[in-house]
Design a protein that fits this description.
There is one protein chain. By secondary structure, the protein is mainly alpha-helical. The protein has one domain. It has six helices and no strands. The longest helix is centred in the last third of the chain and has 27 residues. It is globular and about 50 Å long.
């Protein structure tokens, strides 16, 4: 059942982004920023944590989940390190995901030649 809930929630987040792309003049980059900052804001308000508990990967995989991970990392690092955690917490919490994205991007570029447009 958890797979179905995750699929539905993740799909609804993607549908909302697609509607924003189709019906507004917002660029995909601005929608990305809206999703990440929404994740941070909802985490700070204590709303996104219970949502993650309910939806699992459906809430943590989309871009709002990246904002959630940043905010959660900052709050944990501030609790353990103090004010320095404001600067180190987000990067520490998301370092493995960022490193994986860089690694697989590099790996893909080694085997795929770009096409000129």
């Amino acid at each position: 059942m958890q797979y179905i809930i995750s699929f539905i929630v993740g799909g609804l987040l993607c549908v909302a982004a697609q509607i924003l792309i189709d019906k507004t003049k917002l660029t995909p980059a601005r929608i990305l920023v809206i999703y990440v900052t929404s994740g941070v804001l909802l985490t700070a308000l204590g709303i996104y944590g219970p949502f993650v508990d309910f939806a699992g990967a459906g809430a943590t995989v989309p871009l709002t989940g990246f904002g959630y991970a940043l905010a959660k990392g900052v709050s944990e690092d501030v609790a353990s390190r103090g004010a320095v955690g404001i600067f180190t917490g987000g990067l520490g919490a998301c370092a493995s995901g960022i490193a994986a994205a860089i690694f697989f991007s590099l790996l893909f570029t080694l085997f795929k030649k770009p096409k000129a447009k």
